[in-house]
């Protein structure tokens, strides 16, 4: 497919991005690092990446560096992403940041954890006991759960009220308007004043140290890879106020809102075509839909 076709696809999908064919025209920065959200962007929630996205990512890794930031833990990266990508030297261009960049993995002969900013034992015990207490006092505990309700991701502890393995259909109907989780969080806040408490997904409450969001991960990419914000490009499915990708755009990274992994595939195709033709130029860090 030629680049014109790709741009038509992009326009048809109303992806909020403008791609120009020449840096020389506007003198903008070259993009050197493409950063993606995982759930809802590269893959459907908690699912493996599709063959299309995996193939395009592999192509992209041949022409530029790529990072993936997610609130999820390392096992999610392995299951959703790595098990579905051909593993070879191109992995050296891939950087993975589970739990919003409180962990950092790169490929050095094998996947290697560069650091992990874990909570200490005392913090973990306090968080876990407070989660149990708040759930019990709220009266929102349920009789049947699927898998463990509390997951320790090292730098983040997550309460999934129906359990980690609950079917999506059950999870979706449990707390669609957040009232149950808000009730639990209201009890939790005074118990954990030194931590950030966020409601995520469909049934979960995440506890981290304060200030941990995807902008934190972007800061880690700058620090460890040496790229400036203007050299990065970000794609995510939640770049709106309150969305967990919003902090990246707010930090000043040129950002592309995508609807789903299918639209992400179109964006990757267009970026590869632009790189092949010489360059990409974004007009603004704000979306231009
Ligand atoms: Mg997402």
- CATH topology of the largest domain, by name, is Rossmann fold
Q: Which residues form runs of ≥5 with pLDDT under 50?
A: 1-27, 281-289
- How would you state the average pLDDT, rounded? 86
Helicity level = 25-40%
Main sheet summary? 7 strands, mixed
The count of DSSP E runs of length 2 or more, i.e. the number of strands, is 11
The CATH homologous superfamily of the largest domain is termed: HAD superfamily/HAD-like
Look at the structure and give the CATH class of the largest domain.
Alpha Beta
In what range is the share of β-strand residues?
15-25%
Order of helices and strands: HHEHEHEEEHEEHHEEHEHEH
CA radius of gyration is 20 Å
Bound molecules: magnesium ion
Morphology call = globular
Overall structural domain count:
2
By secondary-structure content and strand pairing, the structural class works out as alpha/beta
- Strand order in space, largest sheet: 5-4-3-2-1-10-11
CATH architecture of the largest domain: 3-Layer(aba) Sandwich
What is the end-to-end distance?
Answer: 24 Å
Quickly count the helices.
Answer: 10
Write structural notes for this entry.
The chain is of the alpha/beta class. The chain folds into 2 domains: 181 residues, Rossmann fold; 88 residues, Hypothetical Protein, Haloacid Dehalogenase-like Hydrolase, Chain: A, domain 2 (2-Layer Sandwich). Helices cover 36% and strands 18% of the residues. It has 10 helices and 11 strands. The strands form 2 sheets. It has a 7-stranded mixed β-sheet, with helices on both faces. The protein has a 4-stranded antiparallel β-sheet with strand order 6-7-9-8, covered by helices on one side. The longest helix is centred in the middle third of the chain and has 18 residues. The radius of gyration is 20 Å and the shape is globular. The structure holds magnesium ion (MG). Magnesium ion binds next to loops.
């Amino acid at each position: 497919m030629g680049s014109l076709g790709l741009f038509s696809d992009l326009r048809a999908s109303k992806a909020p991005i403008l791609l120009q064919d020449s840096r020389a025209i506007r003198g903008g920065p070259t993009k050197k690092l493409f950063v993606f959200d995982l759930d809802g962007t590269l893959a459907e929630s908690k699912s493996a990446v599709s063959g299309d996205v995996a193939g395009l990512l592999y192509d992209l890794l041949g022409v530029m560096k790529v990072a993936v930031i997610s609130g999820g833990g390392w096992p999610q990266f392995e299951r959703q992403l790595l098990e579905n990508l051909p593993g070879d030297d191109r992995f050296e261009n891939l950087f993975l940041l589970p739990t919003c960049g409180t962990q950092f993995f790169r490929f050095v002969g094998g996947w290697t954890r560069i650091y992990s900013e874990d909570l200490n034992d005392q913090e973990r015990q306090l968080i876990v006991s407070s989660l149990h207490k708040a759930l019990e006092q709220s009266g929102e505990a349920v009789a049947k759960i699927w898998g463990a309700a509390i997951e320790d991701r090292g730098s983040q502890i997550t309460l999934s009220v129906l359990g980690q393995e609950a079917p999506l259909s059950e999870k979706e109907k449990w707390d669609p308007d957040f009232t149950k989780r808000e009730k639990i969080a209201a009890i939790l806040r005074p118990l954990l004043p030194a931590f950030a408490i966020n409601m995520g997904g469909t049934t979960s409450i995440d506890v981290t140290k304060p200030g941990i969001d995807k902008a934190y991960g972007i800061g880690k990419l700058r620090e460890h890879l040496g790229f400036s914000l203007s050299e990065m490009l970000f794609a995510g499915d939640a770049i709106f106020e309150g969305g967990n990708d919003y902090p990246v755009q707010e930090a000043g990274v040129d950002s592309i809102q995508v609807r789903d992994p299918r639209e992400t595939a179109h964006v990757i195709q267009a970026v590869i075509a632009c790189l092949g033709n010489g360059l990409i130029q974004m007009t603004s860090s704000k979306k231009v839909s």
